[in-house]
């Protein structure tokens, strides 16, 4: 007996199509500009951090950082030296901010935030995704353009960005903009939130890159040319990290290279 | 018939060739992606720990000038730094840097220390330490913001630079002030507005004692509104200028404005 390839959920999928513009040009451009800006900001920021790789005020202690006084490895840094890194940091910050505003403005005006904003039921959807990735649930849940895990990440990243930018301004101008610095709990804490925001942002970005390559490498072109072939969607492949990277019809021994029908043929296994 | 079979064979060959090109293309794309990814990865690796491309220097300088415009627009004479009530003083943990190999100490053999105030001023003057002490003094418990990222609290005692300026009367064209030291070519020039901020002191006392050699004695410039490196130690000369005059640290590539 053959097991049905397409789960109940996947059967609800509309016929596969080739999207020509999965991500609007503005989204694509701002995505890659953000990649460069974030990498330069993180690298130069870590170089600045290495000049004083600690958070405590002189003559005091700091509660909440286990690596006080330990510099990060040089190869993680950018800018060469403190002054050079500062120059890069204070130049690239404008690129990061303007790029972020363009993206947020576009997403807001075009209503695309609806794909990203958390909703009631997302908790359940997250559980379903986690269960699926842990092999507890068999079929890939169908949750729209982005699944609940993606939504969580893509929704959090801009907000973490806002936290990073505001805390960064707070440590750039601790006297002229003292109220902002105070909002973060003072200079020491503003530096801490700035640093931790970077850690969180890079953590999410690393998870994002991992998932792109491990689950859905086919989306990579969609962020460059905009083209996305829905026949390769993880929902249709039942794709988990490093599982079913090839579409089911390509895994079959059939030499027939014709595109699959909207509902895939039975699994030969 | 033979012709038809021949045609069939040729079609089959053609199909194979097309399929072959497709396979080739797929391989090419993969190779292209690998090569592209490799190049980008190598570029990032090469960039790591580096100063970045040299050609970017002009853009960085441009950004620094624009940032200075923003910083000067944000500047307020009324924004004051206040050290947290519950925050502890740095005390002995207050770091000290000097450009000389050893702590520079005023050489008493060359005469008593004096502070010369000159340049574009109506009445150039020379102050002894006693002269400064006779002027109205200010003691402020404030933060010191180092370019490295640390912060240290101390109480500074001294004379407001604006009070000194009131005595020497700078000319209207004097838009910048250069603070020079007896420590070699160690100096920093400031914009006049920052120099006239009420928290900018010619400081001769720190934490209730006379300013020690480690922290720039007999007197130094100290203000919370500039990063530490802008606050010239071992002060001997204040010169009012029509144009900026760089500085020891800012000439090395730290931002010239260095405001907080």
Notable features of this structure?
heterodimer; A: 269 residues; mainly alpha; Fumarate Reductase Cytochrome B subunit; 9 helices; 2 strands; disordered N terminus; B: 260 residues; alpha+beta; five-stranded antiparallel beta sheet; 5 helices; 32% helix; elongated
In short:
Helices cover 51% and strands 1% of the residues of chain A. Chain A has 269 residues and is mostly helical.
What order do the helices and strands of chain B follow? Answer: HHEEHEEHEEHEEEE
The total of helices of chain B stands at 5
Largest interface: A-B, 40 and 51 residues
Low-confidence stretches of chain B: 18-27
The main sheet of chain A orders its strands as 1-2
pLDDT averaged over residues of chain A: 87
CATH topology of chain A: Fumarate Reductase Cytochrome B subunit
Please bin the fraction of helical residues of chain B: 25-40%
Question: Care to count the β-strands of chain A?
Answer: 2
Q: Number of helix segments of chain A?
A: 9
Structure description:
The complex is a heterodimer of chains A (269) and B (260). Chain A is mainly alpha-helical and 269 residues long. Chain A contains nine helices and two strands, in the order αβααααααβαα. Chain A has one domain (8-251): Transmembrane di-heme cytochromes, Chain C (Fumarate Reductase Cytochrome B subunit, Up-down Bundle), CATH 1.20.950. Chain A has helices spanning 8-11, 25-51, 82-109, 122-133, 148-172, 178-183, 187-214, 234-237, 248-251; strands at residues 18-19, 228-229. In chain A, 32% of the residues are buried. Residues 1-5 of chain A have low confidence and may be disordered. Chain B folds into two domains: 1-50; 55-252, Alpha-Beta Complex (Sulfite Oxidase, Chain A, domain 2). Chain B is 32% helix and 22% strand. Chain B contains five helices and ten strands; from the N terminus they run ααββαββαββαββββ. Chain B has helices at 2-47, 57-74, 129-134, 161-168, 192-195, and strands at 114-119, 125-128, 138-145, 151-160, 176-181, 187-191, 201-206, 209-210, 220-222, 235-241. The longest helix of chain B is centred in the first third of the chain and has 46 residues, at 2-47. Chains A and B meet through α2, α3 and α7 of A and α1, α2 and β4 of B.
